[in-house]
Amino acid sequence: MFNFPEKLEFSIAGIIDAIVEWILTNLDGLFDLISTIIVYVFYYVETFLNYIPWWVMILLVIYIGYRLYHVGMGLVLGLLLFLIGVFGLWEMMIYTLAIVLISVVVSLLIGIPTGILMAKNKRFEKILLPILDAMQTMPSFVYLIPAVMLFGLGKVPAVFATTIYAIPPVIRLTFLGISNVDKEVREAGMAFGSTPFQLLFKIELPQALSTIMTGVNQTTMMAMAMVVISSMIGAEGIGEEVLVAIRNLEVGRGFQAGFAVVFLAILLDRLLQGTTKKLQGGDDA
């Protein structure tokens, strides 16, 4: 009486497995192409980052921090990057940063146009909103399963899983920003003969810039969180150091790697926030 009746139980696991099996059978060539592209892009991004001397990168961060905020903030951001190197995690940081950068760029290339389309098409909005709700409430570890099935282990599934996990915020906030543009501003633009293209790029996107950049920031932070979890499917970087520390119960090693992740996240967050304020023409923080 108190237990749920077995006759009413129904599992969707078999249906999902069948869909995945069909995808693997019929779209194998597509995923091989995607994997090849990710490998090449990752190689060039990581190589570029490794070609920059560590001291040049730190000085560059200090200068950018100074330009976006003030000299004090630049020195703090430079110190955070320096400490990652002091911890002996510089090369791992470069690997992690490469995954985050690729995932965020792909998320923006897909997410911003998708958010704009949602704001312009009510039917598309109604279809996509429940999907975004599901994506944002789905446990992050679940994204590792299709990533491994489609791409195996290593950097490629890490980029795939990180992108899928990080993309909802930029879609939602782009949609929100475009939707909340003042109707009077739109009407004024249309009254002056603006085409839909001009209306979007000269009125709506500039008006929604603050909200969109908040989405970019949230996407970057979610990518940072997911890239650590991706160490479970063979991704290297700082996340792997955290995973090894957990396996060996090395508390100090785990906290050191954790602090490095926090420092990198703070660094990216402050740089993005500062860039947003500059684009808006606001005051320095």
Instruction: Please give the CATH class.
Output: Mainly Alpha
Number of domains: 1
Mean pLDDT over the residues = 87
Order of helices and strands: HHHHHHHHHHHH
Find the structural class using helix and strand composition. mainly alpha
Q: What would you call the quaternary organization?
A: single chain
Main β-sheet: number of strands, strand sense, barrel status? none
CATH superfamily: MetI-like
Number of strands: 0
Describe, in plain words, how this protein is organized in 3D.
This protein has 285 residues and is an all-alpha fold. It has a single domain, classed as MetI-like fold. It is 82% helix and 0% strand. It has twelve helices and no strands. It has helices spanning 13-26, 28-51, 54-68, 71-86, 90-120, 122-137, 144-151, 155-179, 183-191, 196-229, 238-248, 251-280. Helix 2 crosses helix 8 (155-179) and helix 6 packs across helix 8. The longest helix has 34 residues, at 196-229. The chain is globular and about 60 Å long. The model has no long low-confidence stretch (mean pLDDT 87).
Sum this structure up briefly.
The protein is mainly α. The protein has helices spanning 13-26, 28-51, 54-68, 71-86, 90-120, 122-137, 144-151, 155-179, 183-191, 196-229, 238-248, 251-280.
Task: List the keywords.
single chain, 285 residues, mainly alpha, MetI-like fold
Secondary structure: elements and pairs:
Elements (H helix, E strand, L loop, with lengths): L12 H14 L1 H24 L2 H15 L2 H16 L3 H31 L1 H16 L6 H8 L3 H25 L3 H9 L4 H34 L8 H11 L2 H30 L5
Helix pairs in contact: 2-5, 2-8, 3-4, 4-12, 5-6, 5-8, 5-10, 6-8, 7-8, 8-10, 9-10, 10-12, 11-12
